[in-house]
Specification:
By secondary structure, the chain is mostly helical. It is about 60% helix and about 0% strand. The protein has one domain (about 10-50, about 65-89). The longest helix is centred in the N-terminal third of the chain and has 30 residues, at about 10-40.
């Protein structure tokens, strides 16, 4: 739990709710950006980077979480399925 020092209870509650709203806002913006990129032409750099699959060997250890993996988690939590197919239509 975070320590808020000498804040009154109302301020602590507003800070907590504003954090949740900020997270929700950022997740919505990421999903909106994904939709924008998915509608781009195939030759656009953003779309090519999003769909790029690296070749060769990777470094040892746990793979880093990719941006698209975070988006897919958010979509799964929200109950959105087959989003790639819907974007292409």
């Amino acid at each position: 739990m975070r320590s808020f020092g000498h804040c009154d209870r109302g301020k602590v509650i507003s800070i907590t709710y504003s954090d949740a709203d900020a997270v929700r806002f950022l997740k919505n913006r990421r999903i909106a950006w994904l939709g924008h990129v998915m509608r781009m032409g195939d030759k656009r750099t953003s779309k090519r980077i999003l769909e790029w699959k690296p070749m060769g060997t990777r470094i040892r250890g746990r793979p880093r979480k990719r941006w698209i993996a975070g988006i897919e988690e958010d979509m799964q939590i929200m109950g959105i399925r087959w989003w790639r197919k819907q974007c292409k239509e």
